[in-house]
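Supplementary Note 3. Input sequence used for the single-chain structure prediction.
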Amino acid sequence: MLNSKINVGIIGCGNISSIYIENLQKFEHVNLVALSDLQLEKARLQADKYNVPIIYTPEELLNDKGIDIVVNLTTPEAHYAVSEQILLSHKHVYVEKPLTIEKEDAQKLITLARQNNVRIGCAPDTFLGGAIQTARELIEKGAIGKPIAAHAFMLCHGHESWHPAPHFYYKHGGGPLFDMGPYYLTALINLIGPVRRVAAMANITFPERTITSKPNFGATIHVETPTHINGVLEFENGAIGNLVTSFDIWHTKLPCIEIYGTEGTMMVPDPNGYNGVIQIKKKGEKEWKDQPITFGYTDNSRGIGVSDMAHAIIYGEKHRANEEVAFHVLDIMHSILDAADKGRHINLASTCEKPKLMDHTKNLVE
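The predicted structure, written as C-alpha cells, is reproduced below.
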C-alpha cells in the first residue's frame, strides 16, 4: 500500500514561514515534522506557536533520513546554496521564488536533482488556486475564443515604506520583476503557454530611496537594478503579451491581468492570491459578467505546491509547480533585463509544458 504521507521539514523561519507552517499541517499528504533556522530561536518560536515537534539546525535536518521534502524559505540570495545542500542530502526540495538568482545556478540544481533522483518544486503556487485554475479552464473551453494577447501590470511604489529590511529589493536579483514577476509570469504560462522571445525597456527612476519603515527609518538605499520594466512577450502559440512591473508608480487603476481572445476579453484577478473576481465580456455584449470560481483553494493556500508535490511523489505523477516552469520563468526574467540592456529581441533557450489543471474531484486538505 502506498504511503499516504510525506515527511516535510522547513529551513528558514522568517515572516513567510507562518502561513506555510499553518497550511502544511492541514494538507492530506504532508506530515510537517521539523523546523530549522540558522537562528534557532526563530525556529523555536515558530515550533512553539504551531506545535511542530522537532527543532533542528539546518545540518541536523539534512541528516534526518526520515525527512523526504525540505521546504527552503531562505532569502533569494541563499536559495542556490541551501537547495544544493538539500539535493546533496538526497531529499526533494521545494523552494520559494525565484528558483535561484542566476540561471547557471538553477541549471546546476536541476542537473543535481536528476543525478540524485529527487525533485525540485518552486513557488509560486498561487496559480493552483481557485481563481487562476478557473480562468484557465474557461479559456480552454473557449469562453473568449483563441487567446491572442495579454496585458499584465504590477505597479506600486516599492517596499521601503513597510518592509523591515527592504534593501534587497533594490539590489541585483531584486527589483519588481524578480520580486513579483514570478507570480504574473507563472500565471500567464498557465493561462496561455510558454514564451518564445521577449523585448523590453527598463529604467531606474529614483537612484536613491529613503526607508520610512522601522527599524531602518531614514536610511538610504542606493538602487542597483531597474525599478520600472516594460517587457513584451511573444508566446509560442503566437499570442503577444505585455508585462509591466514597477516600484516607481504612486497610484494606478489598471487591472492585474487581462487576456484578449478572438471572441472576447477576460479580466483575471491578482496572481499573488488564490481568489478574486473573474469577469468576461464577449463581442456583442454590453456588460461584463462575473464568472463563478469552480475550483478549490480560494483561501490563502500557500504551500499547496508542496502538497501537490507530495501527492505526485506518492502516485508517481508530475508535480505542477515544477523546475521546468520555474526555470522558464527565471529565463524570461533574465531575458527581459538582457533585452532592455542590449536593445534587441532575446530568443528564449528554455520552454516548459503548461501544468495540468487541478482535479475538481480531489481535495488535498484533510
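The chain has a mean pLDDT of 96. The chain has nine helices and 17 strands.
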